[in-house]
Structures are given as structure tokens and as C-alpha cells.
TrEMBL record:
Gene Ontology annotations of biological process type: dolichol-linked oligosaccharide biosynthetic process
Superkingdom of source: Eukaryota
InterPro entries linked to this entry: Oligosacch_biosynth_Alg14, SKP1/BTB/POZ_sf
Location within or outside the cell: Endoplasmic reticulum membrane
Cellular component GO terms, alphabetical: UDP-N-acetylglucosamine transferase complex
Annotated protein name in UniProt: UDP-N-acetylglucosamine transferase subunit ALG14
Listed PANTHER family: GLYCOSYL TRANSFERASE-RELATED, UDP-N-ACETYLGLUCOSAMINE TRANSFERASE SUBUNIT ALG14 HOMOLOG
UniProt entry keywords in alphabetical sequence: Endoplasmic reticulum, Membrane, Transmembrane, Transmembrane helix
One function term, GO molecular function aspect: N-acetylglucosaminyldiphosphodolichol N-acetylglucosaminyltransferase activity
Family: Belongs to the ALG14 family.
Main localization category: endoplasmic reticulum
Bilayer topology term: Single-pass membrane protein
Species this chain originates from: Globodera rostochiensis
Length: 478
């Protein structure tokens, strides 16, 4: 921090300049436990002024180190001093000056302070190398850190071997550096990795290429039983941990156990839980502050809400059913919409609902365009599909409509939104872009996005959310 204090002393001098009173200028440093106190007093027999500058720690400043670079200007005289002072009250400067010529007193001090009791020090430290990062100071044993690997630690060690005492680091975030150093050497020569810091340490160690620390985190993940085996495999794939991957795979007795474990993890993963929470928070509460909304959608018997899910052929149906598997308690009454020519999706729905026991019905509507159909001839079939979509939405009166990209869902989403805007029936439209869409939206997704048809537009890739900022990133749902 930069502290500047300018004080004109002409008001406290008499014309002859020999009647100088004691004037303490006490300055409390911002966000500090110190005071810089500047005093001026007369010396009768010498007709001079005695200028003193000293630092005074507060009562709760125990353990603080104050490092000061300051410049004191008295009249036309100036002096630059660099000193390191600790947690006791000490005088930084004592000087005498002819008081007749003092008209300006200026103090410029550059203050940097660190909490000495929490400085990062290794237990076997024989020398302390000082590292500065955005105003924070760390005292390190570079030989210990160099043994962990990494270009940054190696550079510090080489600089200390050449006789240097400190280094200024700007290539890393200070919070990350503090977390890294605290893990590596705050509690002794062996890094301390636990459940609260292993993720952050893993990210930093991978970014800085600290191979020794990466191996230690890998060993921690292998032994940590609270991490699901499939999540361990995800860590192994992301950070290229071959020993972790091999250990986890060997723990599976047979292939069937691996598949069952993966499915259990997929259906209970963080992304799916977040998706269910998002529906509860966003779908039913968005725009629900109008009295007319409540009147247009009276509570169903028993408080049951009805879901309409649009299923496309192939992967669209598989994705949708996996997402709905975590919402049995949210939507016990469901209507599935499929194309008339899609027989496979209907059988998948029946098999799915036999396991979950919800009340459901399967409705069919014509396709807007069959595969390979001429675009000109598809105009009539599109109008027909929209007409059937209107009839179906009006008949079912679902509370929530969910679609994940098939073309037949466009008409369903459009009329559900239309009924909601016109207050005919309150309905929330959620569009979930398929996981295969990584760089750009599907054609149906583009129409829904740009015409604001959906109340909530969810994507499963961060790059897609950055490109389309009005979407909501929820991670991988399948």
C-alpha cells in the first residue's frame, strides 16, 4: 500500500521559527496493525527542530513483521531509507533540522506486512528464501520444494544457490500460491493433503507441472474411500493418472459389476442432482408472482404436477429417460410425445415406466419432416404436425414441457409457451440441448433460443454456454 502524508508546518511556527510546539502526526495504516507516528519538537538551545519517525504496533499485532521503504522530505532535504522492522516499537528515523527553514514536511512510505506466525516455513529449514507475490511474503526452504519437481520451484532453488535472497512472482495467483505452499511445507517436510484441499491442490499441481505433488495426490485419491470409483476414473482420465486408473479397474471383479457401478454413479452424479434442483428452483418459481397465474393453473388433486416429455428417435430418447430417472418424486404423472413412425421409443418408455411405476401415457403426432423428404413438400407436413401439437398441448395441459432437441418438440414447445403467455394455462418450457452438441446448437435449439420459446435453456458444455450466454450450464447430465 502507498501512504502519503503532507503537512505544512507554517501554521505552528512563529515568524522567527524558534517557538516550535510538539506536533505528533499519527497515521493508522489501512488494513494494518501498525501506526506510523511522526513527531516534531523544538530544541531551544539550538534553534532547531527534531524530527522523529517511529512505528508502533497495536496491542493485537503480535507476530507481525513490518517491511518499510520510505522517503522523508523536510523542506528541501530528503532521504530514502529501506529497513525491515519487527513487532516491537522502533524508531525509523531521528534527525535535527534548522527550524527556520522548514515549511513542508512530506512522508512517502511503501508498507508491506506479513503475519510472521503464519509464514510458510518448512520444519527442516536452514535458510529462508523470501518469495513475494502480490504483496504477500513467504519464507521457504527451496531445497525441499525443488525435490517435489516443477519449473517454478527449480527456479527458486537455482536463484538461492546463486546467492539471491528473494524473488518476486507474478505468474501465479497469490491465493493459489498460498494454498500450494501451505500444502507443501506449512506443517513439515511432507505435504499434507486432505479431503478439503486435494481438488485445489490437484489443479494447481497439474498446471505448474509439479510431478512429485501430483503423485502424492494420486496416492491420496487411491486410498480415500469416500470418493466413488467412477469419480476416481474421471480424475485418472483428466489428469493422466495411470496408476489410479489401473488400481480402480483391478478392484472391479467382473465386467457386470463395472457396468452396474457406472450406472449407479451416472444416476446419482452431481450434475443430475443439480439438474433436479434447477427444475424445482427455476421452473415453478420463474414468473410465478402474478395472481392471475395462480388462478389459471389450479392445484391438481393431491398436488400432483404433470410432465410432458418430448422424445426423439435414437439417442434423444435414451438421454431423456436417463434424466427423468432422478425425478420420480417430482413428476409422478407423465405424458410422453413421440413421432407416429417411431416404434422403438414407445417400447423404451413402457420398459422404463414398468420399473418406476409412474402414471403415464404415450401420445403420437406426425413428423414435421421425414428423413430425406423434399423441403418443399415438407411445408404441408409441418403445418399438420403443428396442428396436432396444438391439439395435444391443449388437451393434456401439462405443467412442465421438457424437450432435448428433436424436431417434433418445436411445435409442442411453441404452443406450451403460447398458452403460458396468453394465460390460457400456466406451463413451463425447459429445453435441454443434447450432449452431442458441443460447439453449436441444433436447428431446433437455435429456433427455441433466438425466439425465446423456452423459460429455461440448459446446455451440457461450458463452451456452448459461452457462445450462447442466455443458456444455463448444468454440466453433463448423461
Amino acid at each position: 500500500m502507498i501512504l502519503q502524508k503532507r503537512q505544512h508546518l507554517t501554521s505552528i511556527f512563529k515568524k522567527n521559527g524558534v517557538d516550535l510546539d510538539l506536533l505528533p502526526l499519527s497515521v493508522k495504516l489501512p488494513m494494518s496493525c501498525f501506526q506510523l507516528i511522526l513527531t516534531a519538537e523544538k530544541i531551544e538551545e539550538k534553534h532547531k527542530a527534531k524530527i522523529s519517525l517511529f512505528v508502533k504496533p497495536q496491542a493485537d499485532a503480535g507476530g507481525y513483521e513490518l517491511i518499510v521503504d520510505y522517503k522523508l522530505v523536510v523542506g528541501t532535504w530528503s532521504k530514502l531509507v529501506q529497513k525491515d522492522k519487527w513487532d516491537v516499537e522502533e524508531t525509523l528515523l531521528n534527525m535535527e533540522h534548522d527550524s527556520c527553514f522548514i515549511d513542508t514536511l512530506e512522508l512517502c512510505a511503501n508498507i508491506r506486512e506479513t503475519l510472521a506466525s503464519q509464514d510458510i516455513k518448512t520444519a527442516n529449514s536452514f535458510r529462508s528464501f523470501n518469495v513475494l507475490c502480490s504483496g504477500r511474503s513467504f519464507y521457504l526452504n527451496t531445497a525441499h520444494l525443488n525435490s517435489l519437481g516443477g519449473r517454478m520451484f527449480k527456479e527458486w532453488y537455482e536463484r538461492e544457490c546463486q546467492g539471491e535472497q528473494n524473488a518476486v512472482i507474478q505468474s501465479i495467483d497469490p491465493d493459489e500460491l498460498e494454498e500450494l505452499l501451505r500444502t507443501c511445507c506449512a506443517y513439515g517436510p511432507t505435504p499434507v493433503i486432505h479431503r478439503k484441499n486435494f481438488r485445489k491442490v490437484l489443479e494447481i499441481a497439474d498446471k505448474e507441472k509439479i510431478t512429485g505433488l501430483l503423485r502424492m495426490v494420486e496416492s491420496f485419491i487411491i486410498d480415500f474411500e469416500c470418493i466413488h470409483p467412477i469419480q476416481k476414473l474421471e480424475f485418472a482420465a483428466e489428469y493422466r493418472m495411470s496408476r489410479l486408473a489401473d488400481t480402480v479397474l483391478r478392484s472391479f471383479p467382473v465386467q457386470l459389476d463395472r457396468l452396474d457401478l457406472f450406472l449407479n454413479w451416472s444416476l446419482n452424479s452431481y450434475c443430475l442432482r443439480m439438474y433436479a434442483e434447477f427444475l424445482l428452483r427455476a421452473i415453478f418459481l420463474m414468473g410465478g408472482d402474478c395472481a392471475c397465474d395462480i388462478q389459471c393453473c389450479p392445484e391438481r388433486v393431491g398436488g400432483v404436477r404433470k410432465l410432458m416429455a418430448v422424445l426423439g428417435s435414437g439417442g434423444h430418447t435414451t438421454e431423456m429417460l436417463k434424466m427423468l430417472a432422478v425425478q420420480d418424486d417430482l413428476f409422478p404423472e407423465r405424458t410422453y410425445v413421440i413421432a407416429q413412425s417411431d416404434k422403438l421409443s414407445g417400447s423404451k418408455v413402457e420398459e422404463f415406466e414398468r420399473e418406476h411405476g409412474n402414471r403415464f401415457s404415450v401420445k403420437t403426432i406426425p413428423r414435421a419432416r421425414e428423413v430425406g423428404q423434399n423441403y418443399l413438400s415438407s411445408v404441408g407436413s409441418t403445418l399438420t404436425a403443428f396442428f396436432h401439437s396444438f391439439l395435444l398441448v391443449n388437451k393434456e395441459r401439462a405443467d412442465v414441457v421438457i424437450s432435448n432437441g428433436p424436431a417434433i418438440g418445436l411445435g409442442i414447445c411453441f404452443f406450451a409457451r403460447f398458452f403460458d403467455l396468453t394465460r390460457i394455462h400456466r406451463c413451463r418450457v425447459v429445453f435441454i440441448e443434447s450432449i452431442c452438441r458441443v460447439q453449436k446448437l441444433s436447428l431446433t435449439g437455435c429456433i427455441v433460443y433466438h425466439f425465446r420459446i423456452a423459460h429455461a435453456f440448459l446446455v451440457q458444455w461450458k463452451d456452448l454456454q459461452k457462445k450462447y450466454p442466455k443458456t444455463e450450464y448444468v454440466g453433463r447430465l448423461v
